[in-house]
Amino acid sequence: MLPPSVMARLQTDFGDWCHSGLSIMEVSHRGPEFRAVAADLLARFRRLLQVPANYEILLLPGGAQLQFAGIPMNLAGQGERVDYAITGHWSRLAAKEAQRYADLRVVVDMHDTHCRGIAPVDAWDCSDQAAYCYYTDNETVNGVEFSSIPEGIATDLVCDMSSNILSRPVDVSRFGLLFACSQKNLGPAGLTLVIIRQDLLARAPSPFTPSIMSYALQQEKESMKNTPVTFAWYVVSLVLEWIEAQGGLAAMDALAKQRANLLYDYIDSSDRYENLIDPAVRSRMNVVFTLKDASQQAAFLREADTAGLKFLKGHVAVGGMRASLYNAMPVSGVERLIDFMDAFG
Ligand SMILES: *Cc1c(COP(=O)(O)O)cnc(C)c1O
């Protein structure tokens, strides 16, 4: 969900943006009005994530999955080794895509144990010869989240933070590159945030890399090699303004823990529901659970939907249920879900 105050602001702004008589949907991305939105958005990202001066912030088209290709295309030479940690659905897809462009090595694959935990990093089979080591901070589908940034990896860390970006403070200087699509914690779908250390821009992309996927070129063009998704940029800037007003990333983290703990505690204490994820890596953003009596699942989802509790069906890859508790979800939303779960059946 989006914060209700952002939705209200969008409605008033829609036809007459900043008393210009125009809609944000109608202004040119080259004009001063949109330039100001873009500058404001980049400044907010830099402030909220405390992005060091030697990192560039890019806002790219195509969603997170385009970066599954863009990362090896830009950061690995042809045939060069790249290391991937597979901890769930999205890292597996990222590895599958990267395999087309580089010498892919899977350094750990948690599918052997149904992605219910994360093996310690010193058990990963990493090489200091790899171009980078890739992992997914929060596995949206599986409900598994790293509790901290992996330590002791000699190569540059590359991280997919699509579903937990801006939900806790992060030390950007630990990464070569991190990225996130916009449709979970940032706003509507449309843009992908890429934060990259400057020296990595000098790595020559493979000759077949499309121009809009070249990090160096996009940096030079201020992420406007082609027309940006202006409306999504604007909505994201409003969401970042809302996060700052709530107290920033420490406040988002406190809320995320409060929401998730409420639900995990209820599930753990219940004899009808269960969550089998290792408590050390349970996601604060996506709580997966099942009914011990699986035959009740269809009725659960139907009645939840009628009660206004939407989109609780788990991803097809894992089944069961999933409550996505992104930044804008109030604690009262979780309380309503627990009340429903308690009354069900
Ligand atoms: C949603 C998601 C993606 C895919 O995003 P698209 O923008 O649809 O390509 C990738 N990684 C993670 C962790 C996600 O949650």
Largest sheet: 7 strands, mixed
The ligands bound in this entry are:
pyridoxal-5'-phosphate
Please tell me the overall pLDDT. 96
Low-confidence sequence ranges: none
User: What is the N-to-C order of secondary-structure elements (H for helix, E for strand)?
Assistant: HHEHEHEEEEEEEHHHEEHEH
Tell me the strand order in the biggest sheet: 1-9-8-7-4-2-3
Instruction: Compute the number of strand runs.
Output: 12
Q: Compute the gyration radius: what is it?
A: 21 Å
Oligomer: single chain
Helix-and-strand structural type: alpha/beta
Rounded to the nearest angstrom, the distance between the terminal CA atoms is 27 Å
Count of helical regions: 9
Please characterize this protein's 3D structure.
The structure is a single chain. The protein is globular and about 60 Å long. Helix 3 crosses helix 4, helix 6 (230-246) crosses helix 7 (248-269) and helix 7 (248-269) runs parallel beside helix 9 (331-343). The longest helix is centred in the last third of the chain and has 22 residues, at 248-269. It is of the alpha/beta class. The protein is built from nine helices and twelve strands. The mean pLDDT is 96. Helix 4 (89-98) links the parallel strand 2 and strand 3 (103-109). The strands form three sheets. A seven-stranded mixed sheet has the order 1-9-8-7-4-2-3, with helices on both faces. Bound molecules: pyridoxal-5'-phosphate. Residues 63-65, 90, 136, 140, 160, 162-163, 181, 184 line the site of pyridoxal-5'-phosphate. Pyridoxal-5'-phosphate is lined by residues 63-65, 90, 136, 140, 160, 162-163, 181, 184.
